[in-house]
Design a protein that fits this description.
This protein is of the alpha/beta class. The chain contains 9 helices and 11 strands. The structure holds 2-acetamido-2-deoxy-beta-D-glucopyranose (NAG) (3 copies).
Length: about 325
């Protein structure tokens, strides 16, 4: 153990972290975070989807069979192989042929009781996603966010992580020590954020209040950033909605006769502020316009409208 980690461990107790994502267990981003948090002394258990599961939101899908029909992404599991299992080189790395939300529930409901002696999970981390998950449109569509929300539903603090780097790379090709590798930048920033939070948590048994989670978005970093200058992005405290929050659209191409997914246009309802600090900059604006800056937003799973808004609708209903 090197001196840096020894000093960290002397102030922060080791935590148990369940780690998932939606791009699959063989991708570089998740492997880099796994390695970094273990090096910080934490107990990290990866329980991630076997294959790419982008856009599955909070859907809970379990394997349809005991074995898989086709070889998995990056050929990590051959056709006919088990639908869930362990990395032969690391018994704390598990895959599950399901969605991200299902993978986390597989961890909480099956692995933790049967393989880990019911150890208390302090945090579910999901990501870093290959691509940002910014604003309410992505909040409901993203499998990365879906897994974080699924854990918050279960009383386990959840944090979604997403990076602007889109590279769907295999960790065996791309996991190195290069400080300009975007996956490495994201992993180091994740560790920094968690060490700060765990230190502040102190003796408190829960890292976050009940029913609360966080959405973190990293900018283009390392080789992907302008002049390769973004190696240590600063933190910006943001809100999910607000200025420039984009939404999805379905665009018909008259020439090809095909439909395409559109994303990027801002729609007014996505900027409405009923809750939280309305003066904060939106995570969308920070992630796209602030350059070398990471956005941190806080969400609750209490999706009821605030009282004045609900009352307005209640009087409109007129039945109460
Ligand atoms: C874990 O907790 C579950 C539910 O509380 C219980 O049924 C099970 O026996 C426990 N397993 C261990 C290994 O303690
Ligand atoms: C993208 O992934 C490929 C293959 O894994 C790798 O060779 C390449 O360096 C990566 N590019 C970036 C910008 O990370
Ligand atoms: C529409 O389809 C044509 C033909 O495939 C393609 O060349 C063009 O780039 C498409 N336009 C847009 C806006 O995607």
């Amino acid at each position: 153990m090197n001196l840096k980690y020894f000093l960290l461990l002397s102030v922060v107790a080791a935590k148990t972290i369940l780690l998932t994502n939606d791009d699959g267990w063989g991708t570089t981003n998740i492997r880099a975070v796994y390695r970094e948090l273990k090096a910080s002394g934490h107990k990290v258990i990866m329980t991630a989807p076997l294959n790419q599961q982008s856009g599955t939101g909070g859907t809970v899908k379990v394997p349809k069979d005991k074995t898989i029909d086709e070889e998995s992404d990056f050929n990590l599991v051959p056709a006919g192989g088990p639908a869930w299992g362990q990395d032969p080189e690391d018994s704390d790395i598990w895959y599950f042929d399901g969605t991200p939300a299902a993978s986390i529930l597989f961890g909480l409901d099956y692995l933790i009781p049967t393989k880990y002696d019911n150890i208390t999970v302090d945090l579910v981390l999901s990501g870093p996603n290959e691509g940002n998950n910014i604003g309410n449109g992505y909040f409901v569509a993203s499998g990365t966010v879906g897994a974080a929300v699924a854990s918050v539903f279960r009383g386990v603090p959840g944090m979604a992580l997403s990076g602007a780097n889109l590279n769907h790379s295999f960790y065996q090709d791309s996991l190195d020590e290069d400080p300009l590798n975007p996956s490495i930048v994201y992993a180091k920033k994740t560790a920094q954020l968690l060490e700060s939070m765990f230190e502040k948590q102190g003796e408190n048994p829960s890292l976050l209040p009940l029913g609360v989670g966080m959405n973190v978005n990293f900018p283009k970093a390392g080789y992907e950033s302008e002049n390769e200058a973004c190696v240590d992005p600063e933190w910006t405290w943001t809100r999910l909605t607000g200025q420039s929050t984009p939404g999805f659209s379905v665009n018909f191409n008259e020439t090809s006769g095909e439909f395409a997914l559109g994303y990027g246009q801002s729609y007014k309802p996505l900027t409405v502020c009923y809750n939280g600090d309305c003066s904060l900059t939106s995570e969308s604006y920070v992630t796209t316009e602030f350059g070398c800056s990471s956005a941190i937003s806080v969400f609750t799973i209490d999706w009821d409208a605030p009282l004045n808004v609900a009352d307005e609708v209640k009087s409109l209903v007129g039945l109460f």
